[in-house]
Amino acid sequence: MRAGPLRHHCAIHKAEQITRPGGGRVESWTELVKVWAEITLPSGRVAVAADQLTAEIIAEIRIRYRTDISAGMRIIHKSTTYKVEAALADNDQTMLRLLCSNVVNP
After folding, report:
1. From the CB of residue 14, how many other CB atoms can be counted at a distance below 10 Å?
2. Is the residue at 66 inside a domain?
3. CB atoms closer than 10 angstroms to residue 96
4. 8 A C-beta contact, residue 11 and residue 34
5. Segments forming the whole domain that contains residue 28
6. In a domain, 84, yes or no
7. How far is Cα of residue 30 from the mean position of the Cα atoms in its chain?
8. How confident is the model at residue 31 (pLDDT cuts 50, 70, 90)?
9. What is the average pLDDT score of the chain?
């Protein structure tokens, strides 16, 4: 038995603002849903920012079509956290293509 292309089990998280008892708000990440995904081989690049070398991993993640996924959410697969930069649906609205970048300190 072969695994299909959607063989990576991932968790999708969204940001929520939580009000503190003393006032103010803090951003917290809560799990929205777990999905099966296809993660293509990420590409990477090294750039100079603030006189330091920073590495960025860029990946394309495909999941079944959902209406509740948007840019700014996070996808966690094993120990890697990705930030969704764009969510693009195909013409038939059967698959959702997520263009992601890595999150250095999740």
Report:
1. 17
2. yes
3. 20
4. yes
5. 8-102
6. yes
7. 13
8. very high
9. 88
